[in-house]
Amino acid sequence: MAVRRRRKFMKGHGSKGNSGDERLLSRDEWGEAQDIQGSSELILNSPIINKAQERILDQFTPKHPIAFVSPCTSTRPYTKSWKWKIFKKELTGVDFIVSSNAGIIPLEYEDSYPYLTYDARHDPMFEDLYLIYTMRSLIRFFTLKHYEYVVFNFRPSPHVMRRRKSGVVAGRYLKEHHHIQDYAVCPSKPVLKNALKAISGRKGFYDRMYPDVHPLVLDDMKDIIEKFKQ
Fold first, then answer.
1. Can you give the pLDDT at residue 202?
2. Between the N and C ends of the chain, which has fewer C-beta atoms within 10 Å?
């Protein structure tokens, strides 16, 4: 089942049409769908994506003192993915924010154009560029939006270590310059190791795809959030 799902996704990769509400960009500001479907380099430098990000920075107002940041998913809107469904169910008292090639996206904008349309294919060639843009976007967002605490859900797996580094660098900068009181990057290596050990041998697609929703990881994140609430 997992293989069939992945093949189906790859077959349609980059072929989605324009969709979404006009909360950020009116329809006459939309471009061609293929203009925001391709490599990370294309998405990171897209005028449409950048304009939507500017609108978010203008419009968005934090609802809670704690922000919870986690990477995007290929499933759109994001909350239809297994990972974001679990996060929304299990984690409370936080603003949910997506970190993506398309910028820093509070979850309330997940149905807005261009976030149902963009499609960034993974290309190792642009990993360093992605790291630079992500650090810059995180620092800018949390400098302008006033949170007390930020929890970065960037796991220490080999293929996403650059993303984790972006959270560490951004969090350190924001704290040292007094834009936030504190931050955390989770899960830690020991917590993730224990979760992966518990998952080992299972055949479930979602277990392997989303170790961040394993109870061991979720409990660790809940503890961090509760500590920040005190």
1. 63
2. C
- All residues at 6 or more sequence positions from 35 whose CB lies less than 8 Å from its CB, including other chains: 46, 48
- Where do the structural domains in the chain lie, given as residue ranges? 2-229
Cα separation, 104 vs 93, whole angstroms: 19
Superfamily of structural domain 2-229: Uracil-DNA glycosylase-like (3.40.50.10630)
Determine whether 50 is exposed, middle or buried from the number of CB atoms within 10 Å of its CB (0-12, 13-18, 19+).
middle
Check pLDDT > 50 for residue 7: no
Residue 114 scores a pLDDT above 90: yes
Q: What is the largest CA-CA distance in the chain?
A: 51
Distance CA 193, CA 157 (A): 10
Closest CA to 43 of 122, 145, 151: 122
